[in-house]
Amino acid sequence: MTESPADFIVSEINAGIFMLDRQYRVLLWNRFMAQHSDLDAETVIGRNLFELFPDLPQKWLVKKIDSVFVLKNFAFTSWEQRPYLFRFRHNRPITGGIDYMRQNFTFMPMRNAQGEVEAVVVTLLDATDSAIYQTMMQAAMRKLEESSNRDGLTGVFNRRYIDTRIFDEIQRIGRYQAAPFSVVLLDLDHFKRINDTYGHLAGDEVLREVARRVLPGLREPDVFGRYGGEEFILILPQTDLEGARSAAERIRFAIGAEAIVCGEQHIQVTASLGVASFLPPFSSAAEVTQAADEALYQSKHNGRNRVSVYPAQQSQTG
Amino acid sequence: MNDQLLLTPDQRDALQEVTNIAMGQAGAQLAQILEVFVQLSVPRINITESSSIATSILQLVGTPQSVTAVRQAFSGTLRGEAMVVYDQNGCRDLADLMGYEDDIDRDSERELLLDVGNVLVGACLNGIAELLGAKLSFSAPTIMAEDVEVGRLINPQQLTWNYALLVEVHFTLEVRDFTCHLMTLMPEESIVALKSALDAFMENL
Fold this sequence. Notes:
InterPro entries (chain B): CheC (IPR007597), CheC-like_sf (IPR028976), FliN/MopA/SpaO (IPR051469)
Organism (chain B): Chitiniphilus shinanonensis
Pfam family, one (chain B): CheC
Keywords (chain B): Chemotaxis
Oligomer: heterodimer
Shape of chain B: globular
Distance between the termini of chain B: 30 Å
Distance between the termini of chain A: 95 Å
Protein name (chain B): CheC-like protein domain-containing protein
Number of strands of chain B: 8
CATH topology of the largest domain in chain A: Alpha-Beta Plaits
């Protein structure tokens, strides 16, 4: 007896096809599934899918399959969110760099003459190649993004990036009720005088050295960037006002501890800092940076080389 | 507008009737899946011009806010795309109802948006299609936008159609903090197909 073309295709196609009844028993298991699972059709047909593959996320998958029976609806899973359901080997064992075959699934309702869903047909497409390309592309994108997020002179983050990070932090607070973050604005004192006295090249070196002195003292989640001119900004996630104030004090000390050596010149540099926390009633990035800016103005006004916080409290003198 | 695209008052009533019935069924089916009662609004039906689609969506959502949306294409007798627009809370509150057992990370959160979107779209559109004797198949849903201002969900410059039929349904869950909008968009040629399906539906009444 010769196979029908449809049977031949289902059996031989280079994609997984299987079929389940209402009790999740296997009704059909094609060659691809047999080959990759090392379980042939005779072994699996009639048996419960979850007994055959105890690793499957049963609760979630049962919901999914049930929704196809109840809604007479298609359902899907994508490797991008859930890399695989079955631990199958893939065809790039040497060059792949990933563990198991990446899998896209489609669940389709198969109806009988009365329109009732009798079985769910599941197709599995091997998405390993796309996954590998996407991983490569993401790595390239990250590099590209990295380079456009940086301030060309100092190598710290630029204003554009800082602004998006503040926005992200605000979103995170809204979404996860995360602890508030704080913002520190830092302005070098009498920077114009440094430029005028020692020249712009020296001024540039001072900016680079300030960045080098600030960075080692930061925690991993902190984000430090140049906000423009001689102004820097620091975002401290999950940090209250007091924590941010002591971080600002350490930075102030690190900047002013020793003169910056620039060729033959020894340039003494100090900074004024302003600190604000993102707390109610603040709702935007502009409000919290504005508050930090007001505190920074207080530091300048009270004699520079100091840290002030918003709302105004007693100022700390260096 | 081309008169061919306008629904006659009878067709409009029939469509309203069909969508009402379908949403009733969808609510019952969703309750079976989610094991909670889902409230569906009376569907709102509009023909919208591509240039004003952003305003239409904004009006249906009600307030300018940041939203996350999933899109899914359907084809067959009727062709178009369905969008499920979630508010800022997305659907994390539904995780356990959809069979997620652990704390969910970013990827599971996205998968959940897609899962919930797929179920809502399927429940509503299959019901409409069945009543109209139309055959539909669906492609996999994808994330359309995350945390985007609702007026910017669709860029009118990228659209290749002039007029589309827009059907909107609003879902809420009584026991959970969850709300979302399902918007089904069908371009011109599908409106014509829908009109004849509605005529056939009325003849069979």
